[in-house]
Write a structure and sequence with these properties.
CATH architecture of the largest domain in chain B: 2-Layer Sandwich
CATH architecture of chain A: Alpha-Beta Barrel
Oligomer: heterodimer
Largest interface: A-B, 44 and 56 residues
Largest sheet of chain B: 5 strands, parallel
Structural class of chain A: alpha/beta
Number of helices of chain A: 8
Number of helices of chain B: 15
CATH class of the largest domain in chain B: Alpha Beta
Number of strands of chain B: 18
Largest sheet of chain A: 7 strands, mixed
Strand order of the largest sheet of chain B: 4-3-2-5-6
Distance between the termini of chain B: 54 Å
CATH topology of the largest domain in chain B: Aconitase, domain 3
CATH class of chain A: Alpha Beta
C-alpha cells in the first residue's frame, strides 16, 4: 500500500476531535460532505478548502484526543486525506481511522516535516519519504490484526468481502 | 503473577489468562450508543448485513446529545434511532431520560466486573463501580451489535493513590483536575487508570464517578475504582443485584504510581483551551464570566446539585450572567425536585433544563458567542467545543461554579469560609 505525491499539512500536539470537527457541527450537520467543509476550522480555517486529494495530515503527539466521534477520521477521509502521520495517536481515533480505512501512521520524526513538503508513504515497507527534503523516516509497523482491516479498506469492507468479522 | 482489575476483567471476558499487552477477543456485557453517533452505527450495522442485535437486552440506545432535537437533521436521526431500537427490542431512552452514562449506571446494565463499550469517550465513567468500560467508534459498535464481541489490547495500569481528607470547599472535581494537570493529556494513553487510597475510599459512588469520567482526558482507556461495600449498596439502592467484581492483587504489576495528598489540594480550574491546562482557582480569580453551566456526565448528579444549591440558597446569579442547570437524568431531576434543590436554582435565577448533555458538547442549550466566557462543570474546554472558537471555557467544581455565578467572576469558594 503506497500513497504517493501528496503534500503535508502540518499540525501540532494534542489535536483534539473538536478541532478536527467541532461538536456544534457534528451535532447539527449529518451530511458528510457538508460536515467536512468545517474540518480543522478552529485552528486552520482554510484547510478544508485547500487540502487536495492525496495530501497528508502531519502532527505531533496525541492526535485525535477527546471524543470517540468517528466523524473525525471520516471528514479527513472525505476530503481526500491519504493518511495521518503523527508521533502518537489517541486510542479511539486510531482504532476509528483503521476501521474506516484511513491509514494512521506512527512516525517519530514528524518535527522534520513542514507544511507543503511532498511526501510518499509506503505502508508495506514502513517508510515515509520526504521528497522535498530528500529524507526517509521509519514508521512503526501496524499490528497484523489491524493491517488485515486496513488493507481491505476498513471493517465494513472487510465484512462485505469475507462475510464475517475478522475476529 | 498477580493481576490488575483490568487484567482480571479482560481475562474473565475472553476466557484467556490475559496480562497487559495481550490481544484478546472478549465478550461484551453491555453496549451503548447515543444520538451523536447512532446514525453511523445503524448504517454500518446494516451495511455489514446486520439484521438482528446479538442481544437486544444488553443494548442501550439513548437520545441525549441534542435532546429535544434542535435541528431537523437531528430529528431525522432521532426518528431513525427510535425505529431501530423499537424494532430490535433494544433498551431505548427517549428525549428527557438523561445522559447516557448516568442511565447506564442507573439501568443496571453496568455491574462490577463487567465489560462495557459505548460510542462515547466518557464510557470510562463506569469504572467507578468496578466495570471495565471504554469508548469505541461507530463501526466497531456495529461489529459489537452483530457479534457481542470485540478485540482489546489488555492495558497496563497506572495507579493513582490519594490519601488524606479533602479540605473544605475542595471536591472530587478539583482532585481529578489536579490529576489530569499532573499526568497530562496523553500521560495515560492506552493505559487503564486505577484510583485508590483513603481519600478515594472515603468518597461516595456519585463522587467517584467524577474521577473515572475524566480518565479519558489523560488518554486512558478506562478509569477504575475497586468495588467495595459502598458500590454494592449504591447499586442496590438503584434496585440492582450487582456482582462482586474484582480487585487488583497485592502483587499485580502497575506501570507507574502517582501519589497525591488530598490535604494539600485547593480548588482547581482547567483553563482554555486544554483540559490539562490546570491551575489553582486563585490564579484566574476575577475573570468575568457570561455563562455558568452546572451539569454533564462529570457533575450532573444529585450530590453535585446539593453542593451547588447550598451556595446558591437565598442568593441570586449576578446580573448579566446566565446560569444553566441540567440534572444528569430524570431520576436525578426528580430527586432534586423532591429535595427542593430545583426551587433554589429557580429562585437564584437559573435556567433549569431537561435532563441531557446540554451545552457540553456544543449541540444546544447554551452555545457561546464570540468573546464569551463560560465556567462549566463538564469535562472538556477545547476551543469551539461549546460554540464560537473565540469563546473561552473554564472547567471547575459545582461549588466553584455556583460561587462564580453569584459573583459574576471566577471566585475561589474558600472566600465563603473566611466570610463565615
Amino acid at each position: 500500500m503506497v500513497q504517493t505525491g501528496g503534500r503535508a499539512w502540518k499540525f501540532g500536539d494534542d489535536i483534539n476531535t473538536d478541532y478536527i470537527i467541532a461538536g456544534k457541527y457534528k451535532l447539527s450537520i449529518t451530511d458528510l460532505d457538508e460536515l467536512s467543509k468545517h474540518t480543522m476550522e478552529a485552528i486552520m480555517p482554510d484547510f478544508a478548502e485547500k487540502v487536495q486529494k492525496g495530501d497528508f495530515v502531519v502532527a505531533g503527539r496525541n492526535f485525535g484526543c477527546g471524543s470517540s466521534r468517528e466523524q473525525a477520521p471520516l471528514v479527513l477521509k472525505r476530503l481526500g486525506v491519504a493518511a495521518v502521520i503523527a508521533k502518537s495517536f489517541a486510542r479511539i481515533f486510531y482504532r476509528n481511522a483503521i476501521n474506516i480505512g484511513l491509514p494512521a501512521v506512527e512516525c517519530a520524526d514528524t518535527d522534520e516535516i513542514d507544511t507543503g513538503d511532498l511526501l510518499e508513504v509506503d505502508l508495506t515497507r514502513g517508510t515515509v519519504k520526504n521528497i522535498s527534503k530528500r529524507k526517509v523516516y521509519m514508521i512503526k509497523p501496524l499490528p497484523p490484526e489491524l493491517w488485515k482491516i486496513l488493507s481491505e479498506g476498513g471493517l465494513v469492507n472487510y465484512v462485505k468481502k469475507h462475510g464475517r468479522l475478522p475476529w | 503473577m498477580g493481576k490488575t482489575i483490568s487484567e482480571k476483567i479482560l481475562s474473565h471476558a475472553s476466557g484467556k489468562d490475559a496480562y497487559a499487552g495481550d490481544l484478546v477477543i472478549a465478550k461484551i456485557d453491555a453496549a451503548m450508543t447515543h444520538d451523536g453517533m447512532a446514525k453511523l452505527v445503524i448504517e454500518a450495522f446494516q451495511e455489514m448485513g446486520g439484521r438482528q442485535l446479538w442481544d437486544p437486552s444488553r443494548v442501550a440506545v439513548v437520545i441525549d446529545h441534542v435532546a429535544p432535537s434542535a435541528y431537523e437533521s437531528f430529528s431525522k436521526v432521532h426518528k431513525m434511532m427510535r425505529r431501530f431500537a423499537l424494532q430490535q427490542g433494544a433498551r431505548f431512552y427517549e428525549v428527557g431520560s438523561g445522559i447516557c452514562h448516568q442511565l447506564m449506571i442507573e439501568s443496571g446494565l453496568v455491574s462490577p466486573g463487567g465489560l462495557v463499550v459505548g460510542t462515547d469517550s466518557h464510557t470510562c465513567t463506569y469504572g467507578a463501580v468496578g466495570a471495565f468500560a471504554t469508548g469505541i467508534g461507530s463501526t466497531e459498535m456495529a461489529a459489537v451489535f452483530l457479534s457481542g464481541k470485540l478485540w482489546f489490547k489488555v492495558p497496563e495500569t497506572l495507579k493513582i493513590v490519594v490519601d488524606g481528607k479533602l479540605p473544605p470547599m475542595v471536591f472530587p472535581k478539583d482532585l481529578i483536575l489536579k490529576i489530569v494537570g499532573t499526568v497530562g493529556a496523553d500521560g495515560a494513553t492506552y493505559k487503564a487508570v486505577e484510583y485508590g487510597g483513603s481519600a478515594v475510599k472515603a468518597l461516595g459512588v456519585e463522587e467517584r464517578l467524577t474521577l473515572t469520567n475524566m480518565a479519558v482526558e489523560m488518554g486512558a482507556k478506562t478509569g477504575l475504582i475497586e468495588p467495595d461495600e459502598k458500590t454494592a449498596s449504591y447499586l442496590a439502592s438503584l434496585g440492582h443485584k450487582p456482582q462482586q467484581g474484582f480487585k487488583s492483587d497485592e502483587d499485580a504489576e502497575f506501570v507507574d504510581e502517582l501519589v497525591l495528598d488530598a490535604e494539600d489540594l485547593e480548588p482547581q480550574v482547567a483553563c482554555p483551551h486544554a483540559v490539562d491546562n490546570v491551575k489553582p482557582v486563585t490564579a484566574v480569580e476575577g475573570k468575568e464570566v457570561d455563562q455558568v453551566f452546572l451539569g454533564s456526565c462529570t457533575n450532573g448528579r444529585v450530590t453535585d446539585l446539593r453542593e451547588a444549591a447550598k451556595i446558591l440558597r437565598g442568593k441570586h446569579v449576578k446580573k448579566g450572567v446566565r446560569m444553566i442547570v441540567i440534572p444528569a437524568s430524570r431520576r436525578v431531576y426528580k430527586q432534586a425536585l423532591k429535595e427542593g434543590l430545583l426551587e433554589v436554582f429557580l429562585d437564584a435565577g437559573c435556567a433549569v433544563c431537561n435532563p441531557g448533555c446540554g451545552p457540553c458538547a456544543g449541540g444546544h442549550q447554551g452555545i457561546l458567542a464570540p468573546g464569551e466566557v463560560c465556567v462549566s462543570t463538564s469535562n472538556r474546554n477545547f476551543k469551539a467545543r461549546m460554540g464560537s472558537d473565540e469563546a473561552e471555557i473554564y472547567l471547575v467544581s459545582p461549588v466553584t461554579a455556583a460561587v462564580t455565578a453569584i459573583e459574576g467572576k471566577i471566585t475561589d469558594p474558600r472566600r465563603l469560609l473566611k466570610e463565615a
